[in-house]
Fold each of these.
Amino acid sequence: MTSSTSTINPHDTADLSPPSREQEPHGPPGGGRFRISGADLSASIAVFLISLPLSLGIALATGAPLQAGLVAAACGGLIAGRVGGSALQVSGPAAGLTVVTADLIVQYGWRTTCAITVLAGLAQIGLAALRVARSALAVSPAIVHGMLAGIGITIAVAQVHIVLGGTPHSAVVDNLRDLPAQLAAVQPEALLVSALTLGLLLAWPRLPGRGARLAKVLPAPLVAVAGATAAAQLAGMNLPRVDLPSWSSHALAGFPTGPVTGLVTAVVAVTLVTSVQSLLGAVAVDKLISARPGDDSHIPRSDLDRELVGQGAANVVSGALGGLPVSGVAVRSSANVAAGAVSRASTMLHGLWVIIAALLLVPVLDLIPLAALASLVAAVGVQMVSLNHIRTVTRHREIAVYIVTTLGVVLFGVLEGVALGVAVAVGVALHRLTRTRITHRETEDAHHIRVRGQLTFLAVPRLTRALHQVPRGSRAVVELDGSFMDHAAYEALQDWQTTHTVQGGEAEMTGRAGARIAEPTSPSHSCCRPWTPWRNHHCGEPAAALLPGGPPAPVRVHELADGLGAFQRDTAPHVRGELARLAREGQRPSQLFLTCSDSRLVTSMITSSGPGDLFTVRNVGNLVPAPGTESADDSVAAAIEYAVDVLKVRSITVCGHSGCGAMQALLNAPPAEAEPATPLGRWLRHGLPSLDRMAAEGGSWATLKGRPPADAAEQLCLANVVQQLEHLRAHEAVARRLAEGTLTLQGMYFHVGEAQAYLLAPSQNLFDRVVASPAPGGPHEVPGGAPGEVPGEEVADAVR
């Protein structure tokens, strides 16, 4: 239980993905049986103790019969609680509807106001059928907060008159105008009771020691009203009190009378306020549930369309029975969550307790002074003007929307104020969209073009003028300080960048923080972004050709041209600047990557590398002929010498892979063949030492993540990686750099079917897979050792 009266932010959002449950996600608890847990029972009592005085106070503030607040609370608990889509949101008469309802009662009378409530409920059910509930989340928070603040100010100003012993007017301006006269004619007893109520309301949650435990059991609104009532009775004060007439004389809804336009406007106003407040409140309740300690995964997230149905049904019944309009209520909902409720049973039980109190506690309720209820409602109204909301909208530069909405609600009404707020919000958005500042500044090393604001076609003329001030052949930095760029602006920037680069200049695009737009923010790999994930990549082949036993794909004569065209169209604009830099500076790769010619090995993809990062050598079987071997291939040796001595690479990687055709051919080759007749056969002779290594290993073969090789072909692939590393050590340039400690060797195995990489490291006969996050210290490499030393066959943890 809780005594807190703090409100929840109605515009907080949460993930609204459908829950996964064994029972119906939003049906009544327990399936066909209504089960009540101890947590729901205690939470329902806490919510009831808060709801009872607030319902009476809101009814008093609207000028409706006091029973109307109890009817709305009961309907909100029982009907919205069972039918609605939010398990723990508590519905009832809300302070946010006070101004709207009070105006309707003054203008149309009570019975027509009840009919308007019924029509608003039907409208809510119709909106739910159209599944537009999520549209409420698109309302600007500044408008919602401004509407609540305006309503809160209106409530507080009106209740001040009752606190002082007078009677309020319907308009805020009239209440402010008559306030000096009311202060001159203040009733001391009413003021004393109001002050006592406010004092208890503020002090009760702050009791120290043992009082704090008691404050968790009894909510502050109940203690404040009960304390003020007891003090008034003991002192024998003669004050206006609650007067609950007999239920037999309770007024029900009547046929609506009045101008059709006015009635339609009234229905729209009630529908708007109740729907927006309920839907945003449901989302905020989800956020409170997710932040609550413990496992609440069994509590489903809110179904907003179903919540709209529940609120509509509650309004239909409440209006028909002579109750106030119903919506989700922040104070009661937050108390329900904080009290530990676990299902909608707590909300429904709270409605049952309200009915019992309305039938059995009428003599007790009649003792409550109206000044105590008025001060309670005034405190709620003041809380609706949230300083936290004001700071938030100020930080997001929407204070104008907030102020206009608040003043509009105070001076003209809720619907008019919201309309004014929407108009200002649209104006602010258009102003931001069209207001772009472009500046040009020259420094010693570059020309800086800064674009502040959204970059649209309206700003293209000014952008091109600024860009043309950059001399040919110079370095330019364009800083984009905004969150939107349309197609026209994008093309203008790209065309200028291409032209400027071709003319010998350098153009760099940066974001607000000054980092290159094309560069990633991940510290693990700062060179380039990893490839975009893809699947079912068949380059336009007919679907039938991809099926087992299907017809072969037709030959596409222009397939290469099509691919080149796609590169020029889609990729070249993004990499042109980087390639221009590489063209000027020359290649400076950090790694020689020696791998198989297999078409399924895309080295840039599996290593997340970009242009200039890898010096790649590919051949059939990823073989490194040993120096001095008969029929040695000088092309591989030349590439190794160039990479090690000229490019000064810091590491060499030999990468084998699963399903290697070269290794399978080695296994199938006739053992006694003296001199193969084909070039492929002669080349594969460089893999014979790998066959010998596999045979010599016996049963101590290298394993993949603790499992033995799947077959002989995989066993040979692993042995071949280790053998080619030994051949590398025999090359003079490699041996020299290893002795200097400026070069490392590493082996790699890529399982194509699993898309899984394995890295080699010394000491154990184990291939370990690359995991999703870097291991402490990063991946290990095979260090240089004594000449003739055979590297071990362990693969270290690295990055998947």
Amino acid sequence: MARTQRSAESAATSAREIVEPSGDDTEFVFFSGKGGVGKSTVSCATATWLADNDYETLLVTTDPAPNLSDIFGQAIGHEVTAIDGVENLSAIEIDPDTAAEEYRQETIEPMRELLGDEEIETVEEQLNSPCVEEIAAFDNFVDFMDSPEYDAVVFDTAPTGHTIRLMELPSDWNAELEKGGSTCIGPAASMEDRKREYERAIDTLQDDERTSFAFVGKPEGSSIDEIERSASDLGELGIESQLLILNGYLPESVCDDPFFEGKRADEQAVIERAREEFDADATATYPLQPGEIAGLDLLADVGGVLYDGAEATVDVGTATDVDGDGTEHVDSDGAVDFESMTDADAVVDQLTPGEETQYLFFTGKGGVGKSTVASTAATKLAEAGHETLVVTTDPAAHLEDIFGEPVGHEPTPVGQENLDAARIDQEKALAEYREQVLDHVTEMYEDKADTQIDVDAAIANVEEELESPCAEEMAALEKFVSYFDEDGYDVVVFDTAPTGHTLRLLELPSDWKGFMDLGSLTKGAAPAKGDQYDAVIETMKDPERSTFAFVMYPEYTPMMEAYRAAADLEDQVGIETSLVVANYLLPEEYGDNAFFANRRAQQAQYLEEIRDRFDAPLMLAPLRRDEPIGLDELSAFGEEITGLADVAEADAPEVTPS
């Protein structure tokens, strides 16, 4: 069948029509979505369904926390592996670190006979750019997009708009090659051959007769908002999203009390909104199961529901289905004692400021509730008498919704004594950054008639590099750094901390902004700025001044993504995780049946694993009927979160902000 074009009749298109191959050429299905939404489950189910329908299928994941092996119950790894019990299906888990190292070596080896040791060292440093990891992953996509032996290739984790935009830099590769220049993804000369392959790959991504893009999300308003932003980003690059899958809605049969009946009603309203508003050709749904989805039978159930119109099977079972670590916190009735798994005093120690300004960073993947947790912590700290500023770098600007007050680019009061809030406006930050960078380059070459660099060409190159997504990260970081100079605050709470990816941009040798190579435009050309960055990073590394908290919910993928991000921060930047927030814990007073007993036991199991993996105190936050909105609700929610109710009012000594 020919892929249905968007039209008034597009709602009639089925999910099956979108993923099923329609021609002789290999076709591709990309699944995108945040960690923990069931993207890998849906990818595995889709690949299995295609194979069961006699299509030779390859399943590829670039997820840094792959769980294909767990889902299929067999070892897979970095090589293409046949899946036991499923004819026509193979899979591979691409290891991002291995892929990045392979990319670096493939880039450097041809240069070793042409360049001296000093030049090779410079190239090696450039290839430590975090953007290289994205390029390496895309390189692997490109390899598998030329696979005529398969009818379909299913990708678990699609390239983002950020990654695809990197492929388009710089626009004039030949001019860059002639200059011997560099980009944030390495020397231009090393990528000339790849450029043609990348262009072919992007053409295929933009061809909706051969490529399908599907988003997987939870039936939550914030999840839909995030998907719409990502889809819009891809749409600007000529890539349309054809399928939306909302995964994990509460089954009606298990919602037998007002709390979960209300949660289910909210989810169904979000599903209806998504069907009406999201610009996809088809929308499909799958319910929450009492445990994690693994094994061919459950995968067949998922595939049947999504693509054959079958009714979902929800086998509630008994309250003894979950085994393993953590069950010592589950009694014979299935009740879980979450409080025994945390230390409130240790949490308070991480939150309370000393004699200098304390910086609290709440970070984590989208949809884990970090904005709510950060705002709640800020509210309770302000109530305790600490002058507090909460800052968000979240492009969705959730702080305005949470506080019910306007939140701008500069700190403003939000109705609570001692509490201000600010939102980094990406467009304003980028405009400020562009002006600053271009002024800096112009000043460097003013009145320097003897320079060997073509100043106009240098400025033109800078202007082009400022279209890089790396520039957006650096612009946000510039504004972020400025909040370390805010006077008068005892505590500054950051909603969404800079990742290791962003901070590593500062450490690149090409220049103080981290991604442009313009000869003498080096980090040393702006020592004051370099010193400022160094001072901020040193403050962030100091456990007496800064607390890095990873927010997650207790499931495999969110836990592993946070664990990997925490390891990246420590290994690459030297910042240790000092607090872990486990959000959305199922309340004991509701959901008195085997379904929720199994879900609680599973959460207890993952809380034990989180405690083992992170050497940091646990802050526990319960699932609520509604997200807290306004200061009264934030304050009440803070009483339920481990440690926040115990934050003591500052009495001595008086804090001296730095």
Amino acid sequence: MLKATLRSFLAHKGRLLLSALAVTLSVAFVAGSLIFSDTVTRTFDRLFASTSADVTVLPRDDLDSQMPSGATETVPASIADRIARVDGVADTHLDVSVENVTVVDRDNESVGPTTGAPTIATGWYVTERSPVELTSGHAPKGPGEALIDADTADKKDVRIGDTLTVIAQPGSFKVKIVGIATFTTTNPGAALVFLDIPTAQKELLGRTGVATSIAVDAADGVSDAVLKQRITAELGSGTYEVETADEQAESATAQLGGFLDVIKYVMLGFAGIAVLVGVFLIVNTFSMLIAQRTRELGLLRALGADRRQVRRSVLTEATLLGLVGSTLGLAAGIGLALGLIELMGVFGMNLKSTEMVIGWVTPVSAYVVGVGVTFVAAYLPARRAAGVSPMAALADAEIAGMGRPLRVRAVVGLIVGALGAAALVGCVTATETASASSLLLLGVVLTLVATVIAGPLLVRPVIRVLGGLFPAVFGSIGRMSQRNALRNPRRTGATAAALMVGLALVGGMSVASASMTESFDQQIDKTLGADFVVQNSNFLPFPQEVTQKVRDTDGAGLVVRQRFAPVAVRLPDGKRVKTTAAGYDAQLDDVAHVTYAQGDTADALAPGNIAMDAGFAKDHDVRVGSTIPVDFPAGRKAELTVAALTDQDSAEGFGMQGGLYFGFETIERYVPGGQDSALYVNAASGTSVDTLRSRLEKTLDPYPQVQVRDQADYKQLVRDQIAVLLYLVYALLGLAIVIAVLGVVNTLALSVVERTREIGLLRAIGLSRRQLRRMIRLESVVIAVFGAVLGLALGLVWGVCVQQVLALQGMKALAIPWGTIIAVVVGSAVVGIVAALLPALRASRMNVLAAIAHE
């Protein structure tokens, strides 16, 4: 049996190759994602471990800020002297480092990274742990001198002697580049500008006598943990954050983890799609191979092979296929990881391919996924093979493999489909986002499974409709292609299912994204009343001088400021919620249309008051007149009175969770030194909107990080952000289509082999090569369009349900992108034509007499 299994595997290696490609793709994404994330993690662990001070003293921060206020928290520089007297301290250094800066050249072009990495202005001092070393020029001495990192200098063509402008929180200032510093470790992609410490304090923090942190070197023989205890005892517990080098590295790695998780989950999403679609391909391939080998299996049974041996034989073939696919996938995964490492280099993160990490988890995961998926997918065909009777050796192979009723599929599909439909109905009727999301996920899984199970039952009615015009347009060739697709519903259903999965995904996400876009458009129309919004390109705060420049622009009338602050509110139900609140000027009603359930803008923005979303208030037992404790950064606390409740479709635009906002007096009192995040600007009387825009753009030319947007620009910004998600979905769809095409090619190729004698007879009675190719292409097209119709129908249902979940968050508009749907159906027909090219060509080249004589 082992010899027979190996010979069978080698005899069908060409037919199994396409199935192996599906396994290879899925394993490649799993292996590539693990190798890349392990490499980045190891690289940055070394970076953080080698550059962190033994102990670091930082401002205390109990708030998890998602939207920076622009206020830089500091520690008194004087505590460095107290720390220096602690037993076990070898040395101390003042750190002055600020990320929310912009550096521009003489043409007002930013010299910072464009990939989302920060531009960091920091004080210059040299220790053994410095991530850079001075390689040309000299260190900065006094105001007006600075160093820049070598990578930024090369990319932006900055040379020693050039003058740059640094736009920082206290104001803009010019520096002359007097030296270049080169990274001695991995460059994380940031741009670095170094100033001497006194200049950094004055220009970046606005005053001397403070620092953003204090780095402490331990004396020989003193551990970091012991030194931390001693410094904490000296400074007082809870006054400052005191962290060891390991804790600093762990904190930095945790921040990096969010970036890594995005890449890892995206790649695992691709792997999941490849696995899911590949399962259909493998099941179909083995089912067809077993149907073609019915006589062979019957002979094995007649010669004494029992059911277990036949089943084991088929599963051994599947295991061999999984091993081959996993090995190729692991190699492809290493190549994919290398490509990602090189891509990070383009974005400024200089990883070294020679330090690539391939841990034991990677190959184990690769083979578990590859062999496991193939084994599971081949199990049902293997059971079917074990059921072949010895008498099948005397029967026609194709007839022996057909004729099984679909009653069981019908019952199971109906039950699972009913459960899925019930879950989706529950999702639509739910009033809580959490329960609606859970029901949506359950409904999506169950309806997908039900459609796959019941797919063969839908083949005959749907394909009769889809191919109904074939006989009229293509005559007998069209009729034969339609009947070929109807001949084996199981095979057609399984082939179409691979395409259906990808198209269901893209259909659902297209509806969801179109609905989100339409909802945001309506929300912007409804709430934004200003002529223009001045914002940073990445929504970070900008310096106060920008606000003043806008106010001084000729033709600018009302200017309303928006400023964010991280807060934690203690609510009557006992919960402490960390979120972001916003502060506004008193004229908010002139630039925004806020709908209130209780109170008004004057109440909300009065000193000592706060407003919140009515739904959030109801969930936490808050009423108008309630007094709630609010924690601000740097340990500042306030008792604010809830004076207004908003009833917006979406409160997210006026704060984050809870829709909290208050007056500018409040935010300036508790978050002093903050920066504005947006300016809402109306044109003065007598100034046209177009004129004001051109003047504002001229005013803001020295500040390339800040843009002027009207309503149309704001809508486009939202569309662009949603488009990023859509591009990911389209990429997943592309992968699903690639594997689905492999499935259609495999099905048609095996079908051609299965129908060799039939094709020979058709050719003998006058069917031309061209007609034969057309017949196979039409069969492929109708199968592909059948998969598209099922997938889009399922996707539309999912998309509507997703929109209902979004409606609970205020996004109530439903939009269906009919253009995308029509394009997908047309594209599916093209996919069918492409997939049929090779099988049709092979069929047309058959020798007629050899085909007729084929067994």
Amino acid sequence: MQTTYIETQQISFQEFKNQILEDYKLGRISREMSYLGRREVLTGKAKFGIFGDGKELPQLAMAKVFRNGDFRSGYYRDQTFALAVNALTIKSFFAQLYADTSVEREPASAGRQMNGHFATRSLNEDGSWKNLMAQKNISSDISPTAGQMPRLLGLAQASKIYKSVQFEGSEKFSNNGNEIAFGTIGDASTAEGHFWETLNAACAIQVPMIVSIWDDGYGISVPTKNQRAKSDIAEMLSGFQRKEDENQGCEIIQVKAWDYPSLLDAYAKAEHFARTESIPVVVHVVEVTQPQGHSTSGSHERYKNEERLTWEAEFDGLIKFREWILDYAIEIEGKEEIIATVEELDSIEEEAKKVVKAGQKEAWEDYQKTITDLTKSIMLLVENMKGQNAEIETHISQFNKLVSKAKKDIFHLIRKTLLVTRGTHSNERNQLLQKYNEVFEIEKDHYSSHLYSESQWKATHVKEVKPIFSESSEDVDGRVVVRNNFDKIFEKYPETLVFGEDAGNIGDVNQGLEGMQEKYGEVRIADTGIREATILGQGIGLAMRGLRPIAEIQYLDYILYCLQGMSDDLATVHYRTKGGQKAPVIIRTRGHRLEGIWHSGSPMAGIINLSKGILVLVPRNLTKAAGFYNTMLQADEPAVIVECLNGYRLKEKQPDNLGEFTVPVGKIEVTKEGKDITLVTYGSTWRIVMEAANELEKLGISAEVIDVQSLIPFDLSHEIAESVKKTNRLAVIDEDVEGGTSAFILQQILEKQKAFRYLDSDPLTIAANDHRPAYASDGDYFSKPSADDMVEKIYALFNEINPQKYPAIF
């Protein structure tokens, strides 16, 4: 068990004095970073600024109880904390402000995130895990209001799980579960549902979590009284306060942002509750000031009256800290001891200004050198081409007049030069073109790499292992295949766990986890409350701490509750850290072709368009689904696996090699060969397409049926184009709305695979109506493509081609 701050504070007065002055110095450095950062934006050297001034003292106090192995999930105001735990330097702060694309200079995001978004690097360059217990960890910040909260739940829950789950290498992720997850949030953001859902779940399952609420009285310009039912969030949360001898609820601590000794005491208590008793704690930090307002986009003088502004100036945390230091005196062995004189504090403040300015200057020079070196590398090549077109001279002149040059200006000059010299084939132009291709590849890596894994564990690298069938292979319900495969998974991978609504005690609503909780325990096979956003958040946080979670969202429609977290957080983790963090969570869900508005939707277009960065796998049966689970547990990428809801009671032959066979991602399967038309589909609709294809065969139309299997990635070897090349006709059949997934599939086939070259007829899409499906079997029939719809529409295509051979039906 790690000791806590309370248990370790036996120090001499000199040590105490040194700590105070170090805190004051760091607070002043952080404040000067905010001041100078704002000036850099307003003078045009940076795009936008949002800073942590006013929150220095509570963040210094929080940092004192933050240990190696701990995690933070926050938003963009925590620069003092990041400095205090050595996750940020002055130079890296300004490098991020300038959007420097160097990972070495800006390790949090390599210039991909605006300033104030912090992260530590959890991964080595090859994508393998670092020893997270040897560092203080910050999970990559996101801007969406309260969006950081669901992930916080998973980061905290991981500690609870590691108390009973160990596996080879788990020592890199936990020391017997003694880590705390720290969350930070602005007071106004507690009006968001994600805050309440997360805190509710944390209080129910009792995880070691400390949530700091920075309360400055406003949500940008809107005062607290207009944000919630009560202005005081601690008062609102009073019903969450745990009772003695009850294993529910949380501790609530309220403290003033300018009261340094009280802040130390508050966070020491919070750590003790969380680390020793695994209790969630809310630290409500009140009377926070915001000296420069919300951001560089506006002025707080517009909405704060003179009285408020005067109060903020008086109760600025650093001013109050200075006063406390100067007022402090204690008698030790008959001698009065003080912490510092006015002159000593003045000296610290001057030194803070100097080191911040020096760090900013170095960061700016490093960033500018990148621009200068790029300019030098191309200017001579552009100059050499002046004689080939008069416009080039004009473009060079315009470029040289720019006061501040960015990469976009350099590339604009190159591309304009290449544009006006199109059609020429001089050596000078060829040299410029070669250079352009070279530097463009570099910038493509800077701005567009790592959306998906680039490691050896990338999903597409997982070797295909086909299911093995023998004479003894049984015909069983589809749910038995996936259940028995899960049994092998949980036996094989001790780091794997599953959780969701009804996932534990009853073995999920379709019995795909039947008996698993009894066999593997409630920690690994767990029920959750009805709270989809935080089920996803659990998955993200657990995966960031080395576990392999399967987050079950009971029905596909309910995934809409998760879409914000999937889109803004999970899908961007690897990208926004440029390969510095990953969260290989598997989202298990089920859907398609059920009857009724609320359980049969097909929001696939929303998923694939809003969640690029997450693999989207759509197996046509439960054997395929089981194979995808086996594949993804060998990979290091997040994925959504959509099981066919109407397939659990359909018979399938159970493979002999459960837990071993894999289904490759990004690979289609031809399930019926044909020569007249290619029919492309996926999921539950595949069965109906096969039925329609057999009917078409009777009408003299030989249809080739392709099961996509994987929407993201999509048909990496372009096998569909080869099919169209053979059949010369194409129909995409989908149960999503018109222009939904069918449009995506069509774009992939026609544009990316260039299959339009082989078409003798217009491509056809057969999709569902734009409304949700009506109830009952008739509702499905009239709302989504039926076999009759497919037969008639495909037949009509051939009627246009040869009306004599294929006379009109209607």
